[in-house]
Design a protein that fits this description.
The structure holds two protein chains of two kinds. Chain A is an alpha/beta fold. Chain A contains nine helices and seven strands. By secondary structure, chain B is an alpha+beta fold. Classes of the chains: A alpha/beta, B alpha+beta. At the A-B interface, helix 2 of A face helix 1 and strand 5 of B. Chain B: Keywords: FAD, Flavoprotein, Oxidoreductase.
């Protein structure tokens, strides 16, 4: 059966790696991104790597008018429709403290924007009784920490949304994978202080592809982040509130 | 665009730099950098020396600018961003019947780095240098100007860019004419070679498209210059496997590659090939990129790093090359990595390394004694009318290099036109005073 993947935020480091992974599997790719010129540059790269077809479309999590055309476009594709959500933004907590208006934008980019898009594509996926949604959340959403709790709160909201969406899509024969990457070597984290055990986007992309194949529900990537986050979640709040990790 | 403060080094890890690095992933980001804060580019850092360093300044890491921008399956012309690795081109296109015309001994270098050093490979005698298969290159120059050069258009700029060590602009993309291959395999013939004269004789008469000689740099007397000749041609019948590569997890201690160990290793390696020779069929990458199975092999030389000496001398200077090999054998400093090859005349740029003759490349652990030896070998190379390779030399002076590259002033003039403020100058260009 032909497989179509809508890649939201297609020009991000992880999305690029995942799109290449899917291209080598012969999928049809719809590259949805704000930087449409860059998404267009990706098209020949992905066809050279084996994509059945690739096309670029404008997508802006903050502009719902960009959502409809993408949904219409994939409705015309036969076979299985899949969505991978790589959009997001991570201003530093200091920038957010200086401009609280950013809270709304961070929420829009990481949670409510992609959620609105998914709400529109859901009926198509349900009608086909197949397909997978990959939602890239973050370990930062597992517990609020002083360093990035607005970003963390948006990702926590997105994780909870994905959990509910899984509940819904499972009934129709589809599936949702929640991905919680640890520190990944992307353009978003380039030059950010205090990173350790950094994974490459290619490693994360391979882990996601495997999780989709095995219909996993929630994955940490690399896997050892499950251990780290389990410990962090176990620290009692009366101690946690005094830590700066 | 974010800048990250980092310590970085060339492959030999002798020269090091501390400075700010950007790593753009989108064409628009790269264009913005070249407009606002232009800096020299670097790739996979496989040059051995300081050619990619800008100590105390800025540099642009191009490894994420790695897309294929077009591919014509009928002609084998591929247009790529500068950060694409040569091994990746081989992996993607060999199953479609095409491969990069020229690859070096490792698949990790980027197209940008291959152009900047006008690299050569095991087929240099047949197909020439990398730049001779570049049909056009698009540069982003300081200030954001975009210029395209080819052998027919902006000719001087093109010749200053091939082998031009990054001084004419940052490479945005390049078009490469690949060569066709009947399959993804290589038939490799190995022959045991008894001494130096026999080696040159066999290299001169080899009829294969790819050839290279491994030389036992520790053998003396009647065994001087003994080694193994590997001759290869493209063939069908083997699937490329994506085997795991083994990492070198630590910096080895200094004695790991001491003289007795190397002598023992080399003798055993030489005997590995039976006296009557042998032939194998293997995936292309296994033959052309032999060292890639060992990731980060530069750590074998320990923290102090190593030098690779590479020279080329004209055919009639073969006796001087024999003296060079003799001098190395008597020094007791040689490592197992020593390679000899016959080169053709092919070169694409003003600062390109190749000349018709023989090239010799040998690694030495970075010790004072080795540095003194390399200076002696430099003097012998000058005497032979040969030259040193800018992708490897880490010790020569400007006068030595300028004497070996008669077109350097034409090159410097083109570099000055492309980069009048000298913002693309690297540590090597400073060391050799190549921009005046």
């Amino acid at each position: 059966m032909t497989q179509t993947w809508i890649i939201l935020g297609a020009t991000s480091s992880m999305a690029r790696a995942y799109a290449r992974e899917m291209a080598e599997a012969g999928a049809t790719l719809v590259l949805a991104a704000r930087d449409i010129d860059e998404a267009r540059r990706m098209v020949p790269d992905l066809t050279a790597r084996g994509a059945a077809e690739a096309s670029a479309m404008r997508f802006d999590a903050r502009d719902p008018s960009t959502f409809g055309p993408i949904v219409d476009r994939v409705e015309a594709e036969p076979g299985e429709i899949n969505v991978a959500v790589f959009v997001g933004s991570m201003p530093s907590q200091a920038e957010i403290d200086a401009d609280p208006g950013l809270i709304e934008r961070v929420t829009l980019d990481n949670f409510t924007g992609p959620a609105q898009f998914l709400a529109r594509v859901m009926p198509v996926m349900e009608a086909r009784a197949s397909g997978t949604v990959v939602g890239v959340s973050s370990v930062a959403g597992d517990r609020g920490r002083i360093g990035n709790y607005v970003y963390g709160a948006a990702k926590a909201g997105f994780s909870t949304y994905l959990s509910g969406l899984r509940n819904r899509l499972t009934r129709a024969g589809g599936h949702v994978v929640t991905v919680k990457p640890g520190f990944t070597d992307t353009s978003m984290t380039w030059g950010v202080e205090g990173m350790f055990l950094v994974a490459s986007p290619e490693k994360v992309a391979r882990d996601i592809a495997r999780a989709v194949k095995k219909r996993r529900n929630v994955i940490y990537t690399p896997g050892f982040w499950w251990v780290i986050m389990t410990i962090i979640k176990l620290v009692p709040e009366r101690i946690f509130k005094k830590l700066s990790i | 665009m974010q800048w990250k403060t980092a310590d970085y080094a060339g492959w030999g890890r002798v020269h090091k730099a501390h400075g700010e690095l950007a790593r753009p992933e989108r064409a628009a980001d790269l264009a913005r950098i070249m407009e606002d804060t232009p800096a020299p580019a670097l790739g996979m850092r496989r040059s051995y020396n300081d050619s990619l360093l800008n100590d105390g300044g800025r540099a642009i890491d191009m490894t994420r600018m790695d897309k294929i921008l077009s591919f014509d399956a009928a002609t084998g012309v591929v247009e790529v961003e500068a950060g694409v690795q040569l091994g990746e081109l081989l992996r993607l296109f060999a199953p479609k019947g095409w491969l990069p015309a020229v690859v070096p001994g490792t698949g990790f270098p980027t197209v940008g780095g291959a152009i900047a050093h006008d690299i050569h490979g095991k087929n240099h005698h047949a197909l020439g240098s990398f730049g001779q298969h570049v049909t056009s290159v698009t540069l982003l120059q300081p200030g954001g100007k975009r210029v395209t050069a080819s052998p027919g258009r902006n000719k001087a700029l093109f010749r200053a860019t091939m082998g031009g060590i990054g001084q004419t602009g940052v490479i945005l993309s390049a078009k490469l004419q690949m060569i066709s291959t009947p399959g993804t395999g290589m038939r490799v013939k190995e022959t045991r070679v008894g001494d130096f004269d026999e080696f040159l004789d066999l290299l001169d008469n080899s009829r294969f498209d790819y050839n290279v000689g491994w030389i036992d740099g520790t053998a003396k007397g009647s065994n001087l210059g003994r080694g193994i000749l590997e001759e290869a041609e493209l063939t069908t019948g083997v699937e490329a496997r994506k085997g795991p590569s083994l990492p070198v997890p630590i910096d080895l201690p200094g004695f790991a590659l001491s003289a007795p160990t190397v002598r023992l290793f080399n003798a055993a390696y030489w005997r590995k090939v039976p006296a009557r020779g042998r032939t194998h069929v293997m995936p292309i990458a296994s033959h052309v990129f032999p060292l890639d199975k060992l990731h980060d092999w530069n750590r074998l030389y320990g923290k102090r790093g190593f030098h690779q000496f590479q020279c080329v001398v004209p055919v009639d200077a073969a006796p001087v090359l024999k003296d060079i090999v003799g001098r190395i054998a008597h020094s007791g400093l040689c490592s197992p990595l020593a390679v000899i090859k016959r080169m053709g005349p092919g070169r694409a740029g003003m600062l390109s390394f190749p000349m018709e003759g023989y090239t010799l490349a040998i690694d030495f652990p970075a010790r004072d004694k080795a540095v003194r030896l390399i200076h002696e070998l430099e003097a012998m190379t000058i005497e032979a009318g040969g030259r040193l390779y800018l992708g490897k030399d880490a010790l020569a002076t400007g006068d030595t290099i300028k004497a070996m590259y008669p077109e350097w002033q034409d090159w410097a003039a083109e570099a000055a036109r492309a980069d009048p403020d000298g913002v693309l100058i690297t540590d090597m260009v400073r060391r050799l005073e190549l921009r005046g």
